[in-house]
Here is the input.
Amino acid sequence: EDLDEARSALEERIAVLARAHEAVISGEAQGATVAEVVAGATALQAGSQRLQLDGPVVHIAPRPALSLALILHELMTNAVKYGALSWPSGRVAVRWRVLSDRNFHLVWHESGGPKVSPPEHEGAGTALIEAGLSGAGHCEVKLNYAPEGLRFSLVAELPAS
Here is the structure.
């Protein structure tokens, strides 16, 4: 809404991209793991009992890794500003699993925060989230604005890294 807020948002996104690029560059075969991307996007809450991260080693190619980093950054920003992490009792769980050789499922689930309702208008952040992973094959995204907590689900076919 103002220049300082816009500057802060831009700086945060650049920092997320920098962390994602670092994970991609330092990862095997110029890729990263989902855990590295998730850790980078949730770094501000690292070590917090309010954040639970769980999943196996899943390698992800550079383009989907960058998309995932931006999506998770947007979810984290919203959780801190308006969602579960805006309340002391709020929690976020991020879990992922392999569905098949090249498919994986990631879920972001908020609980213990304020009552959730769908946004009155769709902003750039929601559009970014709903676009899914760039560079992935088939990708299905679901956003559920359940009153007890936001739930984001992504199922994607990942190219080999």
Notes: The helical segments are 3-26, 34-41, 62-81, 124-131. Residues 71 and 128 are 7 Å apart (CA to CA).
